[in-house]
Design goal:
CATH architecture: 3-Layer(aba) Sandwich
Distance between the termini: 31 Å
Strand content: 15-25%
Helix content: 40-55%
Number of domains: 1
CATH topology: Rossmann fold
Order of helices and strands: EHEEEHEHEHEHHHHHEHEHH
Radius of gyration: 18 Å
Length: 294
């Protein structure tokens, strides 16, 4: 591992976009770490606490910075916290030979969790990251305490942007589709004044056309054929699902989860980007879910 300890002053600057650290006592150092797995450098944020760990997985085109907020929250200080840039995203390597399949991403993440010596952990995954999370849970079921799935893909209808991307040929997407996608998103975020969307676009711009396209293909395949809902409901530990309130009653997955008596919660005044739209309520749901699982 290559490690850089980030002092409080730098942590404050990192969190500036989230409104600083008013009234929050950050008690330990945030570490920015690059871990080499199978020749690929994977970028991580790590905080060592005294309690069980929480592992965070981002979605398609996003990055570990989605979860910067958690590192500054006093109520999360007792936990060991790990947030990772999946291969091909954020500050992790953009490997030309990596498959970008969700199972291979989970295998990389398992190795990283082992490297950090994390024995038990709660898992929080958003969007595409929910598929990676499901694969990870099946690889190490005895070490997962809870799985908090934030609009993660479970059925075919959950694959939205990824399906649009996957329908293009890879050559087309690499040639100009990726740039068109970014321009279209930028225009939409400018029109709506969506600050969270602009931050997403910054993260997306760190990815490559190859990593986004091949991840989208894997996401669609697993959503269509991976039996993710059944696998999620059969996991042998506490699990719940979180929607942005604006997506309430829009997806078949929500109805099916309720039929299977999986707890479903809603983050008010938010959509799919709930972590950015309403971080206070999102992380409050995360903390309550962890406490339910204890």
């Amino acid at each position: 591992m290559r490690e850089l300890a980030v002092p409080l002053a730098i942590l404050r600057r990192l969190c500036k976009a989230q409104g600083g650290l008013p009234g929050v006592a950050v008690r330990s150092v945030l570490q920015s770490v690059k871990v080499k797995v199978n020749g690929i450098l994977v970028s991580c944020l790590f905080h060592k606490g005294s309690s069980d760990a929480i592992v965070f997985i981002h979605g398609l085109g996003s990055s570990k910075e989605d979860y910067m907020e958690v590192f500054r929250r006093e109520e999360f200080q007792p936990f060991t916290i790990l947030a990772v840039d999946l291969v091909g995203f954020g500050d992790s390597d953009k490997s030309a030979t990596f498959s970008y399949e969700m199972k291979e991403q989970a295998g990389i993440l398992k190795t990283i969790i082992d490297r950090f010596g994390i024995s038990r952990f709660n898992l929080v995954a958003h969007s595409m990251g929910g598929i990676v999370g499901a694969e990870l849970c099946e690889m190490m079921p005895d070490r997962v305490v809870s799985f908090i799935n934030a609009e993660g893909n479970l059925t075919a209808g959950d694959a939205t942007m990824s399906r649009v991307i996957a329908k293009m040929g890879e050559d087309e997407f690499v040639r100009d589709g990726f740039e068109r996608l970014k321009r279209d998103l930028e225009a939409e975020f400018e029109r709506t004044g969506d600050q969270g969307g602009r931050r997403y676009l910054e993260a997306l711009s760190k990815a490559t056309a190859k990593s986004v396209y091949q991840s989208s293909v894997s996401t669609v395949h697993e959503s269509d054929y991976g039996d993710l809902l059944t696998r999620f409901t059969r996991l042998p530990f506490y699990k719940c699902y979180i929607y942005g309130e604006r997506n309430k009653d829009k997806f078949l997955t929500e109805k099916l989860l309720k039929q299977k008596r999986i707890p479903v919660f809603y983050v008010s005044e938010s959509g799919h980007a709930m972590i950015d739209d309403n971080p206070d309520e999102f992380f409050d749901h995360v903390l309550k879910a962890i406490r339910r699982a204890e």
